[in-house]
Amino acid sequence: MVEMELLGVRLELPVNTPVVVLQEVDGQRRLLPILIGNQEASAIAYALEGVTTPRPLTHDLMKNVLDEVGITVLRVVLTEMRDHIYYADLQLEQGGEVHHVSSRPSDAIALAVRVGATVYAAEDLLDEVGQVPVVEPEGEAEQQAEIIEEFRDFIEHVSPEDFGA
């Protein structure tokens, strides 16, 4: 198992599909983007931002139920991908006994954020679908930002007369 860090939820353009992005804590720092539903994306984003709703959302309710019956979420493990579908395992502990519950990764991650549980990925899964991040050469990001700023300045100050016939 490889420990993962939750980087956040983003929109995949141009179709505006939510993606939860995880990154390997050590090693190659591989990225693991997973397409998720809008409601799950909102649930994860709310938890990351510390948003409190007037009534518990589904994942808040699940946390409350687990707390009430004395069950601890030990960890979430992203186990595999079959037929382009990701699978996760909630590892729960009650009274010294460990239980495994199959889950959608988005629901498992939404719950993990709420209870402070660590997310892991199976090494085989990362080997199969993990993406090694592209590192920009030093100074390239600054150069791109400068070009964008120059373009913005041009757009703000351009007039039709500048293209006179």
What tags apply to this protein structure?
165 residues; alpha+beta; 7-stranded mixed beta sheet; 36% helix
Task: Describe the protein in words.
The protein has 165 residues and is an alpha+beta fold. The chain has helices spanning 38-49, 58-68, 105-115, 123-129, 140-157, and strands at residues 2-12, 17-24, 31-35, 72-82, 85-94, 97-103, 118-121. It has a seven-stranded mixed β-sheet with strand order 3-2-1-7-4-5-6. Helix 1 runs parallel beside helix 3 and helix 2 (58-68) crosses helix 3.
| Category from helices, strands and their pairing | alpha+beta
Rg, nearest Å: 21 Å
End-to-end span in angstroms?
Answer: 66 Å
Q: β content, as a range?
A: 25-35%
Q: What is the average per-residue confidence, as pLDDT, rounded to a whole number?
A: 89
| Overall outline | globular
How many distinct beta strands? 7
- The helicity comes to 25-40%
- Number of continuous helical runs: 5
- H/E series, N to C? EEEHHEEEHEHH
Low-confidence stretches: none
Q: How can the largest sheet be summarized?
A: 7 strands, mixed
Oligomer: single chain
Strand order of the largest sheet: 3-2-1-7-4-5-6
